[in-house]
Design goal:
Helix content: 40-55%
CATH topology: Rossmann fold
Number of domains: 1
Radius of gyration: 17 Å
Shape: globular
CATH architecture: 3-Layer(aba) Sandwich
CATH class: Alpha Beta
Order of helices and strands: EHEHEHEHEHHEHHHE
Largest sheet: 7 strands, parallel
CATH superfamily: NAD(P)-binding Rossmann-like Domain
Strand content: 15-25%
Structural class: alpha/beta
Number of strands: 7
Number of helices: 9
């Protein structure tokens, strides 16, 4: 929570992949705190539905269709957010996908390229699009989604995804250190298993999630809202000395 009451009022956050899961939960949490929320998703209707939910609750939101694998769509979306609300204070790069699960020798060039474009290139282009605006306005916060699999390597199922998220982690560190003197903070979150449709979207078998949860000392998966509340804290004035770090949110698991 912020130190200052109404800290998020009239401040704007852009969230990628906010049509569902962690992105949607974070959008609703920021709206609860009075922020303007730009909801972007590859599914334009899903983005609009989340924006309408926020508006019906008295909040301010804009829903935009955005494929993070497309630089042009990212740039257009950031520009639309700035034109609509006048500024972007926070960027949450929540969009991501493992695309498909397979063993290392089964990873095709097509799968690797698609995974990198969604997870790495999408985060890279969103940061490049918003940073000049943040510099001009005198500051901002960027939060990226990394993954515990970047620490573990994803053997047998997700080396391509782990590699992409490892690059996101490294890029977060570099951006944080390069722009720290301009009042811009950049952080990442490495979740463990979370109750979203992420696994189903990548074609993971049911036992994949079961094994992941079995490795968690708390013996449960996390909830999207538990990530969203952390994003809120990271963006708040209660977290002003923190940058260049990744925060593990995993119930104590994911290190084996």
């Amino acid at each position: 929570m912020p130190k200052t009451p109404d800290y998020f009022h009239n401040k704007t956050i852009v969230i990628t992949g906010a049509g569902g899961g962690i992105g949607r939960a974070t959008a609703l949490i920021f709206a609860r705190e009075g922020a303007n929320v730009v909801v972007t998703d590859i599914d334009p209707e899903a983005a609009r539905r989340v924006a309408e939910t926020i508006q019906q609750g008295g909040g301010k939101a804009l829903g935009i269709g955005m494929d993070v694998a497309s630089k042009d769509q990212i740039v257009a979306g950031i520009n639309q957010a700035i034109a609509h609300f006048g500024r972007v204070n926070f960027l949450f790069n929540s969009a991501g996908a493992a695309v498909a699960r397979c063993k290392f020798l089964e990873i095709t060039d097509e799968l690797l390229d698609k995974t990198l474009h969604i997870n790495l290139h999408g985060t890279f282009h969103a940061m490049q699009a918003v940073l000049p605006h943040m510099i001009e306005q005198g500051g901002g916060v960027i939060v990226n989604v990394c993954s515990m699999t970047a620490r573990r390597g994803g053997p047998g199922a997700s080396v391509h995804y782990a590699a992409a998220k490892g690059a996101v982690d490294s890029m977060t560190l570099g951006v944080a250190r390069e722009f720290a003197d301009r009042n811009i903070r950049c952080l990442s979150i490495s979740p463990g298993p979370i109750n979203t449709n992420f696994q189903a979207a990548s074609g993971s078998p049911p036992e994949f999630m079961t094994r992941a949860v079995a490795d968690v000392p708390m013996k449960r998966a996390g909830e999207p809202e538990e990530i969203g509340e952390l994003v809120l804290f990271m963006c708040s004035d209660a977290c002003q000395y923190m940058t260049a770090n990744t925060v593990y949110v995993n119930g104590g698991g994911g290190f084996r």
